[in-house]
Amino acid sequence: MRIVSSYRDYYDTAMGYGVDLACVYAREPEEFDLPGSRIFSERYETGSAEAKAIADISFVKEALGGHIYWGDTYTRDKNIPRDTWKRLRVARTQALIFCGKFYPMTVVEVVEKEQDHRFLYRWSSPNVTRHILFSYEETLDLYSKYLNKKEFKDFSSSKTIQGAFKRRRRKILADIHSEFFKKSGNKHKQLTKAHHDTGVPSILVVPFKHIVYNPPLGDLGFYRVLDAFTAYQELAMFIGGVLGGKSPKMVEVDNKTKIHKAGFDEHSFRKEPGKKRRKKQ
């Protein structure tokens, strides 16, 4: 597969093993705003029809919490990670649709200096770093690093909550993260249709904000999910097989041209005509 792009990604190194010039990947990122993503801005963009169709995919909406953009009936699924601590919080959930597979992820913001936890909700704070997590194991590693023993116990165990009318058991936050990542790598026919409608093999869905075609996967840390060779191979097979690729058109050749090209003529495998002799009586 030959890649035509204005930027380098982590799987470009796999082209050193060989390139199929018949398969071309035009990797140019495009960004489309979702409806309502700039609700407080004077400049309002609705995005493309294809991007809105991706936002309406029921499989993606269900996995990311039952919604993608603001609407009249705004509800949030309680089974989506949205926990907040003194130095750590889940800023948002997003997903990558890559070669017909679904990869959910959580963007977790961490305050490096504990005394600056008041800056947790300030995106421009220099002491706040973002971590993109692709699995439940990565979540446990990060939470165990920044949470103290009491906070981590609250994260990994249930707790009785005294409500207005009855006592109930809160769902374990660790189980919510585990359930969220269970759909990682799942295939769905709606996702394949989204690839056919857009013509791109990689789509990033960011709720409330935008949808990005052909995003830089290295910036997302996708190399922790698929190594360079595997990602390149899946792209080549998906573009050449599912999306059709850009293979050269087969030229039809008639039979006479095929015979002449092979070095044969009308007398091949036959006796050439000669002078007829009279039979002796």
Task: Walk me through what this model shows.
- This protein is an alpha+beta fold.
- It folds into 2 domains: 1-29 and 226-266, no CATH class; 31-215, no CATH class.
- It contains 9 helices and 11 strands.
- The chain has helices at residues 49-55, 58-63, 136-146, 149-156, 173-180, 189-198, 217-220, 228-242, 255-261; strands at 2-5, 24-27, 30-33, 88-98, 101-111, 128-133, 160-162, 167-169, 186-187, 202-206, 210-213.
- The strands form 3 sheets. Strands 3, 4, 5, 6, 9, 10 and 11 form a 7-stranded antiparallel sheet that branches.
- Strand 10 (202-206) and strand 11 form a beta hairpin.
- Helix 1 (49-55) packs antiparallel against helix 6 (189-198).
- The protein is elongated.
Helical content stands at 25-40%
Number of discrete domains? 2
The assembly state of the depicted protein chains is single chain
> Helix segment count?
9
Average predicted local confidence, pLDDT: 77
How is the biggest beta sheet arranged?
A: 7 strands, antiparallel
- Uncertain parts: 38-45, 69-75, 161-168
Proportion of residues in β-strands? 15-25%
Output the structural class.
alpha+beta
Distance between the termini: 76 Å
Q: What's the order of the H and E elements?
A: EEEHHEEEHHEEHEHEEHHH
In total, how many beta strands?
Answer: 11
The backbone outline, from C-alpha atoms, is elongated
Radius of gyration: 29 Å
